[in-house]
């Protein structure tokens, strides 16, 4: 039988493991947490959820970054509510992570510029979609993507980097010898954590 992981009965190590997995998710496109689900609340107070690519996880700042089109539903919902949550489950590590808190769209600042500069050309193309994401079109292919460099560059106007400042973090590790669930809330520069019944 494989030994229990070192974090199994170590609350602080569980938090470190959560951030390690999130960082790995942002760095490697085959990692379990590369494509978490993003939850927002719409104008009617109803939950909406969809996949995003995790671009950065900063354990020191306690922030997560993803990118979206500022014309999209998620961008409008984040701008209106100011909050978002992310969720992922990695079958390889048998870990579920839930993270939520205030979310901010960066469109015209240095952070957005750096995120755009750091994006691959094939990612930038998506921001030049015409008409806007979510528009009703007469056929499935009734939209266009930019084809030349100038048109792709113009997509910068539609680009947003979103920073979620994690205020609540939850970790669930599945093991038949004993599941482990732990949660933390941000308290200034520190995190207050507790074991939870799975
Ligand atoms: C694997 C995968 C990765 C995706 N990554 C992103 C992303 O990083 N940003 C994004 O805005 N949409 C991404 N999408 C598309 C969204 O899930 C969603 O369908 C779309 O953005 C419309 O969402 P909205 O109308 O709620 O804004 C991704 C979808 C998949 C399947």
From TrEMBL:
Cofactor section: FMN
Protein's UniProt keywords contain Metal-binding: no
Annotated ranges, domain Pyridoxamine 5'-phosphate oxidase Alr4036 family FMN-binding: 22-106
Regions annotated as coiled coil: none
Keyword tags: Flavoprotein, FMN, Oxidoreductase
Superkingdom of origin organism: Bacteria
InterPro entries xref list: Pyridox_Oxase (IPR000659), Pyridox_Oxase_Alr4036_FMN-bd (IPR024624), Split_barrel_FMN-bd (IPR012349)
A Pfam entry, by short name: Pyridox_oxase_2
UniProt keyword Oxidoreductase, yes or no: yes
Name of the protein in its database record: Pyridoxine/pyridoxamine 5'-phosphate oxidase
């Amino acid at each position: 039988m494989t030994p229990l992981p070192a974090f199994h009965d170590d609350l602080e190590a569980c938090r470190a493991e959560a951030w390690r997995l999130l960082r790995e998710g942002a760095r490697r496109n085959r990692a379990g947490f590369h494509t978490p689900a993003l939850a927002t609340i719409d104008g009617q107070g109803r939950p909406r959820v969809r996949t995003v690519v995790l671009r950065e996880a900063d354990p020191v700042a306690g922030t997560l970054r993803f990118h979206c089109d500022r014309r999209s539903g998620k961008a409008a919902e984040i701008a209106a509510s100011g909050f978002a949550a992310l969720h992922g489950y990695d079958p390889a590590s048998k870990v579920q992570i839930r993270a939520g808190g205030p979310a901010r769209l960066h469109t015209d600042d240095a952070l957005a510029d750096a995120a755009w500069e750091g994006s691959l050309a094939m990612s930038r193309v998506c921001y030049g979609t015409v008409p806007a994401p979510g528009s009703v079109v007469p056929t499935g292919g009734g939209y266009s993507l930019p084809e030349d460099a100038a048109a792709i560059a113009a997509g910068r106007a539609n680009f947003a980097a979103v920073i979620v400042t994690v205020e609540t973090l939850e970790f669930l590790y599945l093991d038949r010898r004993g599941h482990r669930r732990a949660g933390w809330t941000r308290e200034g520069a520190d995190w207050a954590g507790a074991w939870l019944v799975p």
